[in-house]
């Protein structure tokens, strides 16, 4: 059995979705090779980093990716196999690329509760949580926003006569 670590760079861009592994991204491999009757059993982990955009709010994201892989590379001459030992070598690239690409999220998000984009303003909703809980303003009422509406503010509310009575009862 042989174990070794490899620090490589991805040879090309891996993945075609919203997130992918760019070409030249550091790729750390821990690989174990075991000789078995039918061939060589390859087991290991690969660590790299994905970059792309959130599927909801389109913010750039970059996060680590770790995948485990295991595959039997058979000696040539046996029945058709996906992976074969060739000239005493095992070519790990396809194996590792497939493992990583399959692990990439199909609908990546910048955070699990990403709220996406405001359908009216196109702005991200996640950063302004308090605002996002407010119901969108109907355009017909938008003009009223010019008037003070903060209930804790000092804005005079002479327009509503009951408000003075309420204050009196409380005191
Ligand atoms: Zn997002």
Keywords:
alpha+beta; 30% strand; disordered C terminus; binds zinc ion; YceD; DUF177 domain-containing protein
Distance separating the two termini? 84 Å
Secondary-structure element order, N to C: EEEEEHHH
**Classification by helices and strands:** alpha+beta
Q: Name the quaternary structure.
A: single chain
Report the uncertain regions.
128-134, 166-171
Mean pLDDT: 82
Radius of gyration: 29 Å
Which molecules other than protein and nucleic acid are bound?
Answer: zinc ion
Counted by DSSP, the helix tally is: 3
**Which term fits the overall shape?**
elongated
In this structure, how is the largest beta sheet organized? 5 strands, antiparallel
The total strand number stands at: 5
Strand content: 25-35%
């Amino acid at each position: 059995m042989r174990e070794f670590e490899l620090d490589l760079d991805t040879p090309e861009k891996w993945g075609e979705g919203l997130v992918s592994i760019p070409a030249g991204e550091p790729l750390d491999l821990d690989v174990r090779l075991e000789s078995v009757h039918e061939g060589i059993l390859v087991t290991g982990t690969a660590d790299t980093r994905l970059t792309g955009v959130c599927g909801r709010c389109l913010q750039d994201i970059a996060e680590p990716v770790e995948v485990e892989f295991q595959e039997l590379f058979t000696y040539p001459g046996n029945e058709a196999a996906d992976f074969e030992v060739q000239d005493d070598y095992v070519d790990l690239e396809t194996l590792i690329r497939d493992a990583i690409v399959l692990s990439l999220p199909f609908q990546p998000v910048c955070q699990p509760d990403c709220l996406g984009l405001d359908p009216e303003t196109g702005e991200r909703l996640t950063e302004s949580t308090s605002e996002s809980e407010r119901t969108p303003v109907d355009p017909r009422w938008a003009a009223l926003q010019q008037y003070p509406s903060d209930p804790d503010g000092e804005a005079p509310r002479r327009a509503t006569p009951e408000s003075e009575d309420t204050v009196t009862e409380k005191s």
